[in-house]
Design goal:
With 196 residues, the protein is an alpha/beta fold. The protein is built from ten helices and five strands, in the order αααβαβααβαβαβαα. The protein has a five-stranded mixed beta sheet, sandwiched between helices. α2 runs antiparallel to α9, α6 crosses α7 and α7 packs parallel to α8.
């Protein structure tokens, strides 16, 4: 079911497109870029984000076929309004060489298994841990924020060859990570029919 877009959101996207030409991006890439920019009011994401349209198309199909969505923190979950998510941070414990965020990734993988969409917007250690698991993700949205480990964890994600949305810089966060997933959730369901 396609969502009804509020007039304020329509006007916001109109103003975004008046300031930045996104027409050269493929459809799903454009949707992700625009929604991330919209969530942060930061036009620099247009050149900072890294993703592949083919990976997004496969992830779109998986998402709309019911693949689980795992998030690293409740703030990411709160931003994803049209889909139930799995967040195991409350159940996680830190230990020697293991952060709570990393442990939460292990617990989530035990719960959902392979083929999920993983949305990481807070903790670089969550992304680092995910890369050690045999998660076979449909997509990893790796947009953790911070001065320690964020850029490095996103570079490791890109080097892993996993299907991913990431960015080069240290910026990111829960709002932009949720926005990237929402772009795929909100994209018209006619997209899958167009691709067949």
């Amino acid at each position: 079911m396609n969502r009804v877009v509020h007039p304020i959101e329509q006007e916001s996207f109109r103003r975004l497109r008046a300031r930045l030409d996104t027409s050269h991006f493929p459809p799903l890439t454009r949707a992700v870029v625009e929604r991330v920019i919209h969530s942060a009011a930061d036009l620099d994401y247009a050149s900072d984000l890294v993703m592949d349209e083919g990976d997004l198309a496969k992830a779109y199909t998986a998402l709309h076929s019911g693949a689980p969505v795992v998030v690293d923190v409740e703030m990411v979950a709160a931003g994803i309004t049209r889909r139930k998510t799995v967040c195991r941070l409350k159940d996680a414990e830190s230990g020697p060489g293991l952060t709570r965020s990393a442990h939460a990734m292990r617990l989530a993988y035990e719960e959902v298994g392979p083929g999920a969409l993983w949305v990481i917007g807070c903790a670089p250690t969550a992304l680092e841990e995910l890369l050690t698991l045999d998660a076979a993700p449909a997509l990893v949205i790796g947009l953790p924020v911070g001065f320690v480990g964020a850029a490095e964890s996103k570079a490791a994600l890109r080097e892993s060859g996993l299907p991913a949305v990431s960015n080069v810089s240290e910026k990111g966060g829960s709002a932009v990570a949720a926005a990237a997933l929402n772009a795929l959730l909100y994209y018209p369901t006619s997209y899958s029919e167009e691709k067949q």
